[in-house]
Design brief:
Layout: H1 2-15, E1 18-26, E2 29-40, E3 43-50, E4 53-63, E5 68-79, E6 82-93, E7 96-105, E8 121-133, E9 136-145, E10 158-169, E11 172-180, E12 184-193, E13 200-208, E14 212-221, E15 224-233, E16 237-244, E17 247-253, E18 257-266
Antiparallel strand pairs: 1-2, 1-18, 2-3, 3-4, 4-5, 5-6, 6-7, 7-8, 8-9, 9-10, 10-11, 11-12, 12-13, 13-14, 14-15, 15-16, 16-17, 17-18
Length: 269
């Protein structure tokens, strides 16, 4: 049986167009991770696995010409004594954009794949944006579950809603908003092109019942782009990430550490 499973794994790696291998570790636990993508015409089949769990999914994208684009997909996963399923729909049509995500599992999603932090049971989110003018955008989000900021759950699952108003002035953008998640909070955001080479920085600060800072930086480096990500919260929590080309490293701290190192490559098929 083991030689047969080995042959099936080698065949899967050979047929995949994108292969991502990784190693994840946290206190008292580690696992390898594997992610595969198989484009088939206008469909993309996906597989992801870690020790004791496997997930299979399908995604499709529809180009609507100048009007916009719609993508949707679903995935089922099993292992570690439980099952889960998740689906998404996202796209834009004219000045409006919508993203819907739903998930259900009989155990925390992290036991089915280390890249997910959704809780057991039902979770999901609904986010919409409407472009009021070329310079102004209105956004509204509603959801239940984890914030999805890092490798470890960012506090207990909860209901949350957030409204945002963004305005662009040249190469700079500003965002103001109000939200509620276990209490009210306010947010202020900023995004800008920092130089002529295309370096982009952005930051969002939330204060109130939610106290956290999220910052990102994207900078051209060689033929690829270097991406840096940092999230800090109070009481103290942290999540960070570094990505360049196919190599990425993510980390998190919430009383204990978690690290996930991955490398992805395209086969050119």
């Amino acid at each position: 049986m083991r030689p047969l499973l080995g042959l099936l794994l080698l065949a899967s790696l050979a047929l995949a167009q994108r292969v991502t291998l990784g190693a994840y570790g946290e206190a008292g636990y580690w696992t390898p991770s594997l992610e595969l993508a198989y484009p088939l015409s206008d469909l993309t089949l996906r597989a992801q696995a870690q020790r004791g769990a496997l997930g299979l999914g399908v995604e499709r994208a529809l180009e609507l010409g100048p009007a916009g684009r719609v993508a949707y997909g679903a995935l089922a996963a099993g292992g570690a004594g439980g099952l889960g399923a998740r689906a998404f729909l996202q796209g834009g049509l004219g000045p409006a954009a919508l993203e819907v995500r739903l998930a259900y599992a009989t155990l925390p999603w992290k036991r089915l794949f280390v890249g997910w932090t959704d809780p057991a049971g039902l979770s999901g989110s609904l986010e919409g944006r409407y472009r009021l003018s070329p310079e102004a955008t209105l956004g509204l989000a509603l959801g239940y579950g984890d914030l999805g900021l890092g490798l470890l759950p960012w506090g207990p699952p909860a209901w949350g809603t957030e409204g945002r108003y963004g305005v662009r002035a040249g190469s700079w953008s500003y965002t103001l908003g109000l939200g509620f998640r276990q209490g009210p909070y306010a947010l202020v955001g900023w995004r800008a092109e920092l130089d002529e080479e295309g370096t982009v920085g952005e930051a969002v600060l939330r204060l109130g019942a939610a106290n956290r800072l999220e910052a990102r930086l994207y900078a051209p480096l060689g033929e690829d782009t270097l991406g840096l990500r940092l999230a800090l919260g109070y009481p103290f929590r942290a999540a960070w990430g570094v990505a360049w080309g196919g190599l990425s490293l993510e980390g998190a701290y919430d009383g204990s550490y978690a690290l996930w190192l991955r490398y992805a490559w395209e086969t050119g098929r």
